[in-house]
Specification:
- It is globular, with a radius of gyration of 14 Å.
- The relative contact order is 0.22.
- By secondary structure, the protein is α/β, with parallel strands linked by helices.
- The chain has helices spanning about 5-10, 20-30, 55-65, 80-85, 90-100, and strands at about 1-5, 35-40, 70-75.
- A three-stranded parallel β-sheet has the order 2-1-3, sandwiched between helices.
- The longest helix has 12 residues, at about 90-100.
- It is built from five helices and three strands.
């Protein structure tokens, strides 16, 4: 499983990598799942946002990982006024990301 997303996924402000939600999810799912954290602080889902997730190295790494399942946590940084001016493109960018992940 790949966990992609922003600082919430990355675990910004959390003490220790074992405390991030992807690490906790891995513990809950057990040994039959390999859960990897591909979070990038400040990233956006919007391609015209100030830091598009799909332009980050972690996106390429997540795609190369070829996960059977993905948990996506993006959108928080998109709501900032300088990003949300592209709100009309959010749904299309969201659906495009899902298609690429499939």
């Amino acid at each position: 499983m790949a966990c992609i997303g922003n600082s919430i996924t990355f675990g910004a402000g959390i003490k220790g990598a074992d405390s991030t939600y992807p690490a906790q999810l891995g513990k809950l799912l057990g040994n039959n799942w390999a859960v990897k954290n591909f979070g990038v602080s400040s990233s956006t889902l919007l391609q015209k946002g100030n830091m598009p997730y799909r332009n980050q190295l972690e996106w390429s790494a997540a795609m190369a990982y070829e996960p059977d399942a993905v948990v996506k946590k993006l959108g928080t940084n998109d709501s900032k006024p300088y990003n949300w001016k592209y709100a009309a493109e959010f749904k299309a960018d969201y659906l495009s990301m899902i298609d690429l992940l499939r």
